[in-house]
Amino acid sequence: MIDLNSDLGEVPGDLELMAVVTSASIACGGHAGDDATMSAAVEAAAANGVTIGAHPSYLDRDNFGRAARSDPPELVAAQVAAQVERLCEMATVKYVKLHGALYHRANRDDETACAILEVLPVRHLLAQPGHLLDRARAGGVGRD
Q1: Contact, 44 vs 90, CB < 8 A?
Q2: Helix (H) or strand (E) holding 25
Q3: How far apart are CA 118 and CA 75, in angstroms?
Q4: What distance lies between CA 126 and its chain's CA centroid?
Q5: In terms of Cα–Cα distance, which of 144, 141, 110 is closest to 126?
Q6: 84 phi/psi in degrees, rounded to 5
Q7: What dihedral angle (degrees, nearest 10) is formed by the CA atoms of 121, 100, 38, 141?
Q8: What are the boundaries of each domain within the chain?
Q9: Are 141 and 119 in contact (CB under 8 A)?
């Protein structure tokens, strides 16, 4: 099976893609989204049989989560956990896919990767091959 994934709940009109994707990484309020858009995305995913994932980021709406930041790893991890937990209150979240600059930082910075992986309430991660995925596998993320 091929999983067609898209990051959704980020801009008006993007939920129409729920009709063609098999998994949706839903913005959790850091770079985009809020309770209303998350709820709408969850409803659209359920109506279309789409698997739900959380798409947390730096708390950086001004730069859409694309600007590098030097926030302490523990702060970043707490912000990620809060975003994912909020979406988990609305739906069954199957995986986490970090967004933008935060993803790139976690894929090269061991301290940030470990801090985030320690607090994730969801044990599956969607990531490209690299440091973050290797660290996640070593720590048991992605294994039932």
Answers
A1: no
A2: strand 23-27
A3: 13
A4: 8
A5: 141
A6: -65, -45
A7: -20
A8: 5-138
A9: no
The residue type found at 115 is: A
Q: What is the pLDDT of residues 25-66, one digit of tens each?
A: 999 999 999 999 999 999 999 999 999 999 999 999 999 999
Which amino acid would we find at residue 101? A
Sign of torsion, CA 113 114 117 119?
negative
Q: Give the rounded percent of residues in the chain with a pLDDT score beyond 90.
A: 86
CATH code for the part of the protein at 5-138: 3.20.20.370
Question: First and final CA of the chain: distance in angstroms?
Answer: 20
Question: What H or E segment, with its residue span, contains residue 38?
Answer: helix 35-48
Encode pLDDT of 78-97 as tens digits.
999 999 999 999 999 999 99
104: buried, middle or exposed (CB in 10 Å: 19+, 13-18, 0-12)? middle
142 has pLDDT over 80: no
